[in-house]
Amino acid sequence: MDITLIKTFIEVANTGSFVGASERLFVTQSAVSLRVQRLEDSLGHALFKRSKSGALLTCEGEQFIQYALSLLKIWEEARQQIAIPEGYSRSFSFGAQYTLWHRLGFRWIDALQTAMPDLSVHAEMGMSDRLTRFLVEGVIQAALLYTPQLRPGLIVEPVIGEELILVSSFDVDLQDIAEAYVFVDWGPEFTHMHATALPHLTNSGRSLSLGGLAADYIVNRRAAAYLPARSVQRYIDVGRLHIVADAPRFPYPAWVVWRQDLDPKILAEARRTLSDVAQAAEKQQNITLDKGNHVSVTKY
Prior knowledge:
Layout: H1 3-15, H2 18-25, H3 29-43, E1 48-51, E2 54-57, H4 59-82, E3 90-96, H5 101-115, E4 119-125, H6 128-137, E5 142-145, E6 154-160, E7 163-168, E8 183-184, H7 188-197, E9 207-208, H8 214-219, E10 224-228, H9 229-237, E11 242-243, E12 250-251, E13 254-259, H10 264-290
Parallel strand pairs: 3-4, 3-5, 8-9
Antiparallel strand pairs: 1-2, 5-13, 6-13, 7-10, 7-11, 7-12
Helix pairs in contact: 1-2, 1-3, 1-4, 2-3, 5-10, 9-10
């Protein structure tokens, strides 16, 4: 059985679309169609009902989806077990979005290896869709995300109450910030709160959908934007970024997503170490936010 065919089948089932699956797998739509056709030929049954609106699982497809997930799980377990380096007896793989690495991801690796010296750790970075796909496929066993997606076989838990704060690379008041303002797309909830609280900044001449890289852009230009308080603390500490007075703050919580089939002993220790790391990060974030508490701040 070609594991690529299984992965493709699962992506079509998750997205309900051959087009959507092709975008997530970075292949052409015709390649997705060919892979699904090969799988259907092997099984002797159609797995999807094709239509202009997308692709729905047939009865046979509904029956096969659990087997497909199990096959993928066994494949990834075997691949990871074989890859365990000499001197280690267990392995754990996780991913995180870019801005979650500085205060959570790297420190979690340290805490895991201190608590479990025999644990081999593998890390991935990516956007929410990519990491969710890796979770479903079993490439990783946990992920730190701002925008988790509920899928069968996954558990979502809160990690830290992140906040987005308005910072600039130069001293400026909120009423004078329009020309320097860069809108960063942190998702639909932020966009709605932002439009309500700061309607005059909604139609910014510059906008980025590069959340994880936005700080690098802002700090090297005469610019301002909403960024996660925790991830920009290092710039604030050295005076390269400044908290804008009187600007509202917006909640932006981080989550951890676990695979349900993760080894219970590893899961328990991973939960405990992540909790310790998150508590330390929360304290650091409060220090950053306290630096702006001498001004009037509205929190949404």
